[in-house]
Queue: 3 jobs
Job 1
Amino acid sequence: MASSTTALLAAREQLRAHKQLQQPQQTAKKPLAVEQTKKNNSSLGYIEDLKELVDANSKKAARVAMVFDSLTSEEKALTLIAAGISPQLHTQSFNEFDQPERRKIINGVKLLDSVTRKFQEKVGVIKFLSDNAITN
């Protein structure tokens, strides 16, 4: 009986070793442009990867502009205040701001998000707050 147990354990070990050889090695995911450059040093492949990254960023920028432009004047002014930009510029579209101002707007949105999250963590869902919640 001991020899059959030993044989069974040895067979299991061989099966595990075989399964490990069959599984592809998992590596940390590298940025697309770096990975492509290592695969083939063709500048065409690298340029195509960069184009994909730029296209993805362009789509995100277009969505940010669309959302900002859809805000009410009051919401735009509040966002601009959080960004450290004069709220009097609330009539401008997102694309009328220069690059540093756009970065400030994004940082302003992040600031507003962090404030909202703090209230939600401590008070609960903000949209359910009533005027009675602030009276003593």
Note: The radius of gyration is 28 Å.
Job 2
Amino acid sequence: MKIPTEYTQGSGYLAIFGGASYYLWKVTQGKKFNMLSFIINLILAFFVGFVMGKFLPDGLSINYRDGLISISGFLAFPILELLEDRGILLLHQFINYIFKKNNIEVFIEDGETIRYKGKKYKTNK
């Protein structure tokens, strides 16, 4: 079943429920409730859920999609920490995957030289 476009645009809103659940769970563990912190948590959960929704394939069942997006809102802070720590590496691997999938060869040889379709290009470092 193909997921309608209207549904995929609401990924961030769905993640807000995960973010609210995370914050309220932390309050039950002894954290003091702070409205500003709660709102910031919801905004970050929205962002992470929205981005996650864009990366999930169109053919994915709505049931799995809802669960993954809600969990991404719940885990917004660990996901953002992972992106902060390893974001460049993950982005590099993702770009290489896309290029490989589309039969485009790009290699960064020494951090300054890029080889594309057999030709070498120097970066502006």
Note: Residues 87-125 form one domain.
Job 3
Amino acid sequence: MTSLKKSARSATAKKAETTATNVSITKQFTDQRDPYYVPDQSDINKYYDEVYVPAQEGATPEQRMLTDAIFIQKTRMIPSTVKNQTNAYILSGDPALIMQAAQLIDRVDETPGMFDQITNTQTKAFASNMVRLMEVMDPKEALRLSQQLTDPADQNRVTARRNQIKTEKYSQKYVDWTRDIVGESDPTSFQNAANQYQTIFESYYLAGSDEDAARAQAEKMIQSNYTQSIFGDMMYAPEQYYAVNGSVEYMRDQLDEEIRAEAPNIQFDRDNIYLLTDDYTARTAVGSAPQYRVLILDDDGVFQQRSGYFVPDIAAQESKLRAETETLTQELRTEDEQASVSYKRQQFEEKQAAYEDRKGKPRKAVPASELYADTVLSDSRKIVADVAMGALKARREVIGTAVDAIVGVGEQIEKAGKRQRSKLLEDIQEREAQDNAFC
């Protein structure tokens, strides 16, 4: 296993990120609320022009290039504005713009299934040559030479290179160069990778790139799209496009069911189902939905190829997982409720047992003399007697004082009464004397 092979783990994360991005874009410009709906080119163009571009106002060309690359990597679609602008930059003759366009193309090419999608082979070959030559010569000279190398009218060069490919047996070189990238792997998958390498190399070599530049393009394409899979190391592995909850094992289940329904007489093990890729797979991968040929190794050791192309039913798998999740959630909820009832019942039974235990064994009364022994309350009888005697004495004092007060008041009343009676007698006698005088 070489260090250049990529695992499907990162592809799963990218798939989830792409889905989230597409949902966000779709909600802003359509009535779609389906989380698995994929926006079309018009949705992407509208979002990019009306939302994404205004948000980048004031950004430097380098920043714009990076954000455009991220946008394309997340949505796996290229806005028309970006494509037109990139091609215009390449043909502008301005070294700075050509460099910016070349960097964007390079980043987009690293996205699985997006190789050669932002511009055509000839234009990219021109940009590649321009960038490479500007490192060693004046930009104007690099521009002139790049135009000469990629001139479609230069049929003599194209013919000469085709002959070179045949006479120098490049077909064997392709095998060796591919092995340097992917190492030893399944023969069928390896041959598919070698065929893809040949296609990319020759398209660039014949378009005007030199051998090293053409090899670099082919190597980048293989590294981006040749990854590990449960179906074996392969180009456009389904883990990069069809993973559900991080797995494509469900594809084996779907294939196994379909093949046995179509050909019940074929005896095979489900682990002996293989996916094959070809040029059609590469074209369909551009739209993030690659289609695969299917190969079955039967129990007799004979390979049998299924007709047509296979595309997994990802919606059915997602629906199945949702149903299973709902069922599991309900089961867990029921178990939690049952566990809660059981726990509460256990608590009640424990409390009831404790109550019955207490009721059956009443607490023993403890005399106060024992309870308060060796405390300030230990001689309680003496304290109570002292308190009672003090209260009685205080009461007697209060009563004596009250009696004295009452007696004193009575004496004063008696004296006042005597004075009033004496004066009344005097008044009566005085009136009688007056009455006799008038008579």
Note: The two ends are 165 Å apart (CA to CA).
